[in-house]
């Protein structure tokens, strides 16, 4: 196998094509920039807080559903009482 001879000019051109320039590096985030970002631990804590918050909200929704589960029965009962009251008022002669 024949080794390819690389000249200094070719090597310089390759480095310019493949290596980051100072301007490229300036555009990248610095260590200081990264310090302001959330860490894995921060995200894990946030995930726990969100999960716990949703658990509490779901629990409250379940309690509300439980509280209103008998509303259709109450509505029907109220309707029946209204009809009975109307009949009684009619018999007594106090119809409105």
Overview of the molecule:
- With 96 residues, the chain is mostly helical.
- It has one domain (8-92).
- It contains 5 helices and no strands.
- The longest helix has 29 residues, at 40-68.
Low-pLDDT stretches are: none
Q: Please give the count of helices.
A: 5
* Inertia-based shape: rod-shaped
Q: Round the mean pLDDT to the nearest integer and report it.
A: 89
- In total, how many beta strands? 0
How is the biggest beta sheet arranged? none
Q: For the terminal residues, how far apart are their CA atoms?
A: 112 Å
**How would you classify the helix and strand content by structural class?**
mainly alpha
Q: Any idea how many domains?
A: 1
Work out the strand percent. Answer: under 5%
| Rg of Cα set | 38 Å
Could you write a compact summary of the structure shown?
The chain is mostly helical and 96 residues long.
Write the SSE topology.
Layout lengths: L7 H11 L3 H6 L3 H5 L4 H29 L2 H22 L4
Supply database-style keywords.
single chain, 96 residues, mainly alpha, 5 helices, rod-shaped
């Amino acid at each position: 196998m024949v080794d390819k001879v690389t000249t200094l000019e070719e090597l310089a051109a390759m480095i310019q094509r493949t290596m980051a320039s100072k301007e490229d590096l300036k555009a990248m985030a610095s260590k200081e920039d990264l310090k302001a970002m959330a860490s894995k631990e921060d995200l894990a804590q946030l995930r726990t807080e969100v999960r716990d918050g949703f658990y509490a909200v779901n629990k409250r929704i379940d309690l509300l559903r439980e509280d209103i589960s008998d509303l259709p029965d109450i509505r029907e009962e109220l309707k029946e009482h209204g009809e009975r009251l109307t009949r009684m008022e009619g018999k007594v002669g106090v119809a409105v």
